[in-house]
Amino acid sequence: MKTGLLYGIVASSKTRVRCVFCGVFIPKANKCIEQHTNGAKHKENIELMTENGISFANDMLYCKPCRIELSEEESVTKHIESDGHANWVAAMEDLIDGEFISLDPYLNSDKEDVYCEVCHSSLQCTLQNIEAHVNGINHRTNITERLKPLNGIFPVDNDDEVWCKVCNVFIDNTARSILDHIDDDDEHMEWFAEIEDLIEEQDVSIESFLANEYEHNAFCNRCNLEISCNPQTIEAHVNSDAHLSHFP
Ligand SMILES: [Zn+2]
Ligand SMILES: [Zn+2]
Ligand SMILES: [Zn+2]
Ligand SMILES: [Zn+2]
Ligand SMILES: [Zn+2]
């Protein structure tokens, strides 16, 4: 990204310049300009531009998500708070939540695409397009495949079902019923919430328990010790003197 003293500053009159990002006028003196462009507010606005897909070219601000050039009266913050922009951001974040699609490369470059990590494909970043993609059968299937080893879901002999190791239940082997189980089953979600709460910042990992069908243990990296992977044992372990004495 371009920076430098005059980044965002355009001529206004004989005595004043205008900061396009902040929507303010500044006396036309190097010292004043420098003070402004080194200020926290100005830097914060540059950061907001990067996070919101707003770029600066030919003395104008352009918002890529909204596909408009901002008028002279509109500062970066004013535009971001406008309904059109705020709604786009909210709708987009809602669509890509949990979908392994990151908006950042789209927002802070001049790319028109985002990348779907589970489908290994680029897609044009419009609400309509992303909505169609995340609801598509290929994407749902790929998401399911990605989530299985993170959720303790395993194939069984008959292809019609899968097995959830965490809940010890069989589930129909369709993307929809597996995702329903992962996202909506109370017992499943409670187990994860409880364990994640217990192991947070405790260096205890449950990845191999979830990814390997025959692994019974979680692993405490702090104590270099295997512990039976259930809430009771993990709770007892993270509160034990042995574990606490290994505090880094
Ligand atoms: Zn400024
Ligand atoms: Zn916008
Ligand atoms: Zn996808
Ligand atoms: Zn489950
Ligand atoms: Zn430990």
TrEMBL record:
Instruction: Give the species this sequence originates from.
Output: Loxostege sticticalis (Beet webworm moth)
Residues in domain U1-type? Answer: 14-49, 58-92, 111-146
SMART domains in UniProt: ZnF_U1 (SM00451)
User: Entry's InterPro entries?
Assistant: Matrin/U1-like-C_Znf_C2H2
Q: Which domain of life is it from?
A: Eukaryota
Q: What is this protein called?
A: U1-type domain-containing protein
